[in-house]
Design a protein that fits this description.
alpha/beta, six-stranded parallel beta sheet, five-stranded parallel beta sheet, 14 helices
Length: 368
């Protein structure tokens, strides 16, 4: 079996969201032969005005021809050949539309929707796939109903086996990454900065200098490294963000935090299917509704070393068993009626072994 991983390039200065794809690719490469099919980011990103969109439309045919030549080469071997196309917007679908001459060279074609799309506007393009996978179960239902393509719920996931961490050397007390409740952040940040005796809060970016972007794999390593050095992190429901249209799926920040043994502080998403993904004790510690109660609550959480240790081990073990990318690949292959490769079976066994080891370390009083 060969997986053809079609996505925005992981090697140019594209949007930082591509670092999630780097983690997915790493996990896929551990269980199957991989062909990485890169879409130049400038063709599908920052298309805010008519001029930039026109430039992209002019570039797309050339990108399509390059991809066609690559696909012909990569599909010469025996199959099955499985295309997994990572989709963030309709522009990604436009690129795939140029691949008609080689579309039938794939035995299975999967649209992996990892961002909010309008199913009605994307229906013509999405209908060309045999199967879709979607990060949000509410959106999954809309795609299946409006487009007519069978759609799997593929919640947020990452290479947990590679990055699971329960070490207790964590110099960062509180970690903030990306989207946040600005009022809450400014209030807690101001409190922490007022004295060096107070918790250390880090507002982290994988790309501190946009002039010097690193490959997505490096940015992803930076992200997971800082999570592994943090005691607690903030995660809040995405439902209030405009682009989510009121939907509240589980997003990658939870999976990254659990993988790294962080305590999660914030508000758990309430989207369809989320409860089943987060139903172990203390998966998210809900912040008090009253802003005046939040800082005392956080200080109590940080002061409880036994609680921090308990959550560190439980979160990492649950992430291994629930949210490793290999579990998503397994559900996909099962849905397509394909055999699980021996390498995948071995990795699934390794995941369970590591989860058991982490649980045993929690009981035995050692961290690794």
């Amino acid at each position: 079996m060969k997986i053809h991983f079609l996505s925005r390039s992981l090697h140019d200065g594209g949007h930082v969201s591509r670092n999630n794809s780097a983690g997915h690719l790493q996990a896929c490469a551990s269980v199957a032969e991989i062909a990485e099919l890169a879409i130049p980011s400038h063709c599908v990103e920052k298309l805010d005005g008519p001029r930039s969109k026109l430039r992209s439309l002019r570039r797309i045919p050339g990108v399509g021809r390059t991809l066609i030549d690559r696909i012909k080469e990569e599909t010469r071997s025996g199959g099955p050949h499985v295309l997994i196309h990572t989709i963030l917007s309709g522009w990604d679908l436009r690129i795939a539309g140029r691949l008609a001459p080689v579309w039938d060279r794939f035995d299975h074609r999967v649209a992996n929707v990892i961002e909010n799309l309008d199913p009605a506007r994307s229906a013509r393009h999405l209908s060309r796939y045999d199967l879709a996978a979607c990060f949000c179960d509410d959106l999954r239902e809309e795609i299946e109903r409006q487009v007519g393509v069978p759609t799997l719920h593929w919640p947020a996931h990452t290479d947990v086996l590679r990055h699971a961490s329960v070490g207790d050397r964590r110099p960062v007390d509180l970690l903030e990454v990306g989207r946040r409740d600005r009022n809450r952040y400014e209030r807690i940040d101001s409190f922490c900065r007022a004295s060096s005796d107070r918790p250390f809060i880090l507002d982290f970016s994988t790309r501190p200098n946009t002039i010097y972007p690193a490959p997505a794999a490096v940015e992803f390593e930076r992200l997971m490294n800082v999570y592994a050095r943090s005691r607690a992190t903030f995660c809040e429901t995405p439902a209030t963000a405009t682009r989510f249209n009121g939907r509240g799926p589980l997003t990658a920040r939870w999976v990254h935090a659990w993988t790294s043994g962080c305590t999660v502080l914030g508000t758990k998403p309430d989207g369809r299917g989320v409860d089943d993904l987060t139903d172990w004790p203390e998966s998210t510690l809900e912040l008090p509704k009253d802003p005046d109660d939040q800082i005392p609550f956080i200080l109590d959480v940080l002061a409880d070393e036994r609680g921090m240790r308990r959550r560190r081990h439980r979160n990492a073990a649950e992430a291994l068993r629930r949210h490793d990318t290999r579990h998503r690949i397994t559900s996909l292959l099962d849905r397509l009626g394909l055999d699980r490769p021996d390498r995948l079976r071995a990795k699934l066994a390794a995941i369970e072994c590591k989860a058991e080891s982490i649980e045993a370390a929690a009981d035995g009083g050692t961290s690794s």
